[in-house]
Amino acid sequence: METTIPAPLATALHDSTMVAHERAETATFITRLMGGEGTADGLVALLRQSLPVYEALEEACRGIGADPRIEPILDPLLDRTETLRADLQTHEQAGRSCDIVVPAVEDYVAELQACEGNAAALIGHHYVRYLGDLSGGQIIRTMVRRHYGLEDGLTFYEFNIDKPKVYKDNYRSALNALPLSDEDRREALDAATRAFELNHRIFLDLEAAGIR
């Protein structure tokens, strides 16, 4: 019987999350913000929701130690917590702030805290957040600058990485080389899908809260 060779992990992550990814990126809140029909306050609200998510993710990644199943993709250059705090402070000084943390964020944080010590699940969350920031995040930065005249308070979307495309290619290669069992691989794929679903729920909650 012919043995089916599984797709490289980076390919599997992309393909298995395609539906959840599309659902998230076409949510009304984010399409309105990207299309210039939102406000700068909407961006600030989005950054405010992101802060506890990255705090939880980066805490979990620091706690995983040198586990070879995830260590090769961990890189302090990707950390976003401090840039988020700085951006929110910049916006607050300009009179823009958000005190709301929507329920989906609380669920997202709980999900990440439950993944502490679980390298396989953290791979999926790491992939969704940081590869997304290096890709779609750059588009968000461009569009909010264009539509809302913002120049400051966007360091969340800026990375100290000279060649982002090369970095992303190397990241995918590192993903593909991770020493994962079949169960680890399934956990990583499932976690990535949950991450996109939670992102989608954040957008829905912001829309329901009337934030533009």
Give the helices and strands as they follow along the chain: HHHHHHHHHH
Structural class: mainly alpha
Radius of gyration: 17 Å
CATH topology-level fold name? Heme Oxygenase, Chain A
Q: Please count the beta strands (DSSP E, at least 2 residues each).
A: 0
Count of helical segments?
10
The CATH architecture comes to Up-down Bundle
Please tell me the overall pLDDT.
Answer: 95
Q: Specify the CATH class.
A: Mainly Alpha
Envelope shape: globular
Distance linking N and C termini: 56 Å
Helix content: 55-70%
Strand residue content: under 5%
Largest sheet: none
The number of domains = 1
Unreliable stretches (pLDDT < 50, length at least 5) are none
Protein name: Heme oxygenase (Biliverdin-producing)
Keywords: Heme, Iron, Metal-binding
Descriptive report:
The chain has 212 residues and is an all-alpha fold. The chain has a single domain, classed as Heme Oxygenase, Chain A, CATH 1.20.910.10. It is built from ten helices and no strands. The chain has helices at residues 9-16, 18-25, 28-34, 40-63, 81-93, 103-114, 119-134, 136-148, 164-177, 182-208. It is globular, with a radius of gyration of 17 Å. The termini are far apart.
